[in-house]
């Protein structure tokens, strides 16, 4: 289907406003020109009539005296007037007895004069004299009140009338065209100033929006109607942008929920698997440790004792891993109000037993009065894992601080070290994933921070990992003040 061609607003204004007004003014010019032409023609005829009436008395007196010289001189004087083209005097038979101007070149008698003379009244007519079209006015001659059988004819070129009318029409229609052109320019400029720029701007904004630029806005200016359209367009774009932002936020929330659900499902499945493996490994490890302990009592050989001690050390290491696996798969929180400073001290003591070399300096900043509602066993396990990592990574110093945040009803525990930190290409989420470790193969299980994440999550808290100001890793644990259950 062919696209329907639509007229622009400027074209519609010209068709519906300018052209009717211009046509109306043209009709007015035509009517006015017609009446002015009529008045001009009447004036020219009246001038000839006055001249003819002015000379009929002296010509009548001269004819009554038989003085044709005076008659001719009078006609010559009339012809000298610029408006007169010719003058004649006729007898009762229509014969020309005196003439001036173009009438001298016309040798024929004028039957029209005889006809006018029989009527005895003034008359006029268009006729030809000497091959020229003229306008003639006839007046009878009076002598002292008595009418003589004499007729005077005063002529004027017919072209004088048409020339005058044509000149009047030329100026009238020329002025009409000029005024129409100026009016057209004024209308177009006025449209551009009043509406054209604003309409173009609104169209441009709509085009930008159609191309996906929802930040584009119309400038509210111009006439009240156009400004109202601009405001309505901007309001609509604001609402569209707000709705789109709400949709994107809802989609992001759904994605986050799906990711959390997927992670929880994965963690639950992993927890069931880990729990089963840990239980299966626990009994054999206890048996190995017990028999190694009995063999150590029965064998006095120092070399055998060292080998048995090494076996028991590896068993202890495996037992610790099994305990971590069990703690990782464990769910549920046993709430209890404890002093945070004592809980941290217990965790530091547990970590201290594992130190074989020189331990770093611990900078502790925890208020003695700070009490928290937590699961002491599980939170201590989380602290042991964080402190173990910090102690192993630190060059010389590990910091532990805690504070209550009354305005948010939360409390925060921060642990940092002055070690080398982590690779900048790694993301915090990777460090919190189960079995992900940055330690060399055989030195870490990758469960430490995963256990921390689970414990803190079960407490309704949040774990944040970031580089510390001392160069190492800064672990921040944020907990709600009240029991989230």
UniProtKB/TrEMBL annotation:
InterPro entries: HAMP_dom, HATPase_C_sf, HATPase_dom, His_kinase_dom, HisK_dim/P_dom, HisK_dim/P_sf, Sig_transdc_His_kin-like_C, TCS_sensor_his_kinase. GO terms for molecular function: phosphorelay sensor kinase activity. This is histidine kinase. The chain crosses the membrane at residues 170-191. It is an enzyme of class 2 (transferase). GO terms for cellular component: plasma membrane. Gene3D superfamilies: 1.10.287.130, 6.10.340.10, Histidine kinase-like ATPase, C-terminal domain. Residues 276-483 form the Histidine kinase domain. The lineage of its organism: Bacteria, Pseudomonadati, Pseudomonadota, Gammaproteobacteria, Vibrionales. The keyword Calcium does not apply. SUPFAM superfamilies: ATPase domain of HSP90 chaperone/DNA topoisomerase II/histidine kinase, Homodimeric domain of signal transducing histidine kinase. The keyword Ligase does not apply. It comes from Vibrio palustris. Its EC number is 2.7.13.3. It holds the Pfam family HAMP. Keywords: Kinase, Membrane, Phosphoprotein, Transferase, Transmembrane, Transmembrane helix, Two-component regulatory system. PROSITE patterns: HAMP (PS50885), HIS_KIN (PS50109). Residues 193-245 form the HAMP domain. It catalyses: ATP + protein L-histidine = ADP + protein N-phospho-L-histidine. It comes from the Bacteria. It is found in: Membrane.
């Amino acid at each position: 289907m062919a696209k329907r061609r639509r007229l622009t607003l400027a074209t519609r204004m010209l068709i519906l406003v300018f052209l009717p007004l211009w046509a109306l003014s043209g009709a007015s010019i035509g009517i006015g020109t017609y009446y002015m032409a009529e008045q001009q023609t009447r004036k020219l005829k009246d001038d000839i009539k006055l001249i003819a009436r002015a000379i009929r008395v002296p010509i009548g007196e001269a004819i009554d005296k038989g003085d044709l010289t005076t008659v001719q001189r009078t006609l010559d004087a009339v012809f000298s007037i610029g408006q007169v083209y010719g003058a004649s005097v006729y007898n009762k038979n229509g014969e020309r007895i005196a003439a001036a101007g173009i009438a001298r070149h016309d040798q024929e008698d004028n039957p029209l004069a005889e006809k006018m003379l029989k009527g005895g009244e003034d008359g006029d007519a268009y006729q030809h004299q000497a091959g020229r079209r003229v306008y003639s006015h006839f007046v009878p001659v009076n002598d002292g009140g008595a009418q003589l059988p004499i007729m005077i004819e005063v002529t004027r070129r017919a072209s004088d009338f048409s020339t005058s009318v044509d000149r009047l029409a030329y100026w009238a229609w020329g002025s009409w065209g000029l005024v129409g052109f100026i009016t057209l320019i004024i209308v177009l400029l006025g449209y551009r100033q009043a509406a054209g720029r604003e309409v173009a701007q609104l169209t441009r904004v709509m085009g930008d929006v159609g191309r996906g630029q929802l930040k584009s806005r119309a400038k509210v200016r111009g006439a009240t109607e156009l400004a109202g359209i601009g405001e309505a367009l901007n309001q609509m774009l604001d609402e569209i942008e707000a709705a789109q932002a709400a949709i994107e936020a809802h989609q992001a929330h759904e994605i986050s929920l799906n990711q959390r659900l997927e992670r929880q499902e994965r963690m639950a499945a992993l927890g069931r698997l880990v729990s089963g493996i840990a239980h299966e490994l626990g009994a054999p490890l206890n048996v190995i440790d017990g028999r190694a302990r009995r063999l150590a009592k029965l064998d006095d050989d120092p070399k055998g004792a060292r080998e048995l001690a090494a076996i028991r050390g590896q068993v202890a290491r495996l037992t610790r891993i099994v305990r971590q696996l069990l703690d990782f798969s464990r769910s549920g929180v046993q709430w209890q109000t404890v002093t945070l400073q004592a809980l941290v001290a217990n965790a530091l003591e547990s970590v201290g037993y594992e130190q074989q070399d020189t331990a770093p300096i611990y900078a502790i900043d925890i208020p003695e009065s700070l009490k928290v509602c937590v699961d002491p066993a599980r939170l201590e396990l989380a602290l042991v894992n964080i402190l173990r990592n910090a102690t192993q990574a630190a060059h010389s110093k590990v910091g532990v601080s805690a504070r209550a945040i009354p305005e948010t009803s939360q409390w925060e525990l921060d642990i940092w070290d002055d070690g080398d930190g982590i690779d900048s290409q790694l993301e915090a989420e990777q460090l919190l994933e189960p079995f992900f470790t940055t330690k060399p193969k055989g030195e870490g299980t990758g469960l430490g921070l995963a256990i921390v994440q689970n414990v803190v999550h079960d407490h309704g808290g949040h774990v944040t990992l970031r580089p510390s100001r001392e160069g190492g890793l800064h672990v921040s644990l944020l907990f709600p003040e009240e029991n989230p259950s």
